[in-house]
Design goal:
Strands 5-6-4-3-7-8-9 form a seven-stranded mixed β-sheet, with helices on both faces. It has a two-stranded antiparallel sheet with strand order 1-2. Helix 1 runs antiparallel to helix 3 and helix 3 packs across helix 4. By secondary structure, it is α/β, with parallel strands linked by helices. Helix content is 32%, strand content 34%.
Length: 182
């Protein structure tokens, strides 16, 4: 599912061919951030989606998820919780390790980030293979939080992440999606 502003947001995203390697079309969200009207529509896309739900917190994945997560939490009047790369949080944490294309990575969450049954929207900039979002969702569930939805600015469905997230039992929302040939 996409947003009412999905086509507009998609038109502002810059595609950089052959970066970081030949054959890859990199989806650059920087123009969304530089264009005040586009950035407002982006945040509004999420606000309109979640404003009538009882959301206790926005959990955002390090680091580009923070760009959308913080203003969304502010607009919804709920808390903001960062999901960080290993070693970046100063207090007691829980961690989750997940597979990457070449190796592994670990993310962490403060152990006291949520109360039992808090309703959480998890957000990141894009969904590719889904590994980071599924690891973050696992952390949230382990901490007692209830995930309302996993959300992103962009979905790259050909990489299979959004389907993998749905297969794991989560609802998925993206403002827009790109196929490889777009």
């Amino acid at each position: 599912m996409s947003s009412i502003y999905g086509d507009y947001i998609k038109s502002v995203v810059r595609t950089v061919p052959d970066w970081p390697q030949p054959g890859v079309n990199f989806r650059d969200i920087t123009p969304l951030l530089q264009n005040s009207a586009a950035f407002r529509k982006l945040i509004d896309s999420f606000v309109h989606r979640y404003q009538e739900l009882e959301v206790d917190a926005i959990a955002a994945i390090d680091a580009r998820g923070f760009i959308v997560g913080a203003p969304l939490a502010y607009e919804l009047g709920c808390s903001f919780v960062p999901v960080r790369k290993k070693g970046k949080l100063p207090f007691q944490t829980i961690s989750e390790t997940y597979s990457l294309e070449y190796g592994e990575s670990t993310i962490e969450l403060h152990s006291d980030a949520f109360r039992e049954h808090d309703r959480i929207v998890l957000i990141d900039d894009l969904i590719a293979t889904g590994g980071t979002m599924l690891a973050a969702a696992s952390l949230i569930s382990r901490s007692g939080g209830h995930i309302v939805e996993l959300a992103s600015i962009l979905d790259l469905p050909e990489l299979g992440g959004s389907q993998q997230i749905r297969d794991a039992g989560y609802s998925v929302f993206a403002v827009c999606s790109f196929t490889e040939d777009e």
